[in-house]
């Protein structure tokens, strides 16, 4: 049986290797600008508490700020953009052989 979809671990997963792999992506997955930050998702976490390292996106500082603090997007729009960015980051990691499927 699969765990409940709403299950959230009490401690977020930390992986320096994962963050290092994200930093190998040189361009923002949303706008293509050079120079990225590993931006953590804000969902399901309190202030000052980062989500799992696996929920990071390769974003330029401008896109990172717009998603975290942007006043031009609603909260739902910011979350949708971050979710898209996380998926695009995972795709880039897989294409580079930095994420692999296992049996």
* Overall pLDDT level: 85
What is the domain total for the residues?
1
| CATH architectural name | 2-Layer Sandwich
Sequence of strands across the biggest β-sheet: 1-2
Oligomerization: single chain
Q: What does the largest sheet look like?
A: 2 strands, antiparallel
Strand content is 5-15%
Helix share bin: 25-40%
CATH topology: Erythroid Transcription Factor GATA-1, Chain A
Helices, by number, come to 3
Can you tell me the residue ranges where pLDDT is under 50 for at least 5 consecutive residues? none
- Tell me the span between the first and last alpha carbons: 18 Å
What gross morphology would you assign?
A: globular
* Helix/strand structural class: mainly alpha
CATH class: Alpha Beta
Succession of helices and strands: HEEHH
Which value, in Å, is the CA radius of gyration? 14 Å
DSSP, total strands: 2
Organism: Vreelandella sedimenti
Protein name: DUF1364 family protein
Would you kindly provide a written description of the structure presented here, covering whatever features stand out?
The protein is mainly alpha-helical. It has a single domain (17-95), classed as Erythroid Transcription Factor GATA-1, Chain A (2-Layer Sandwich), CATH 3.30.50. 37% of the residues lie in helices and 8% in strands. The chain is built from 3 helices and 2 strands. It has helices at residues 16-23, 61-69, 75-95; strands at 37-40, 56-59. A two-stranded antiparallel sheet has the order 1-2. It is globular. The two termini are 18 Å apart. The mean pLDDT is 85.
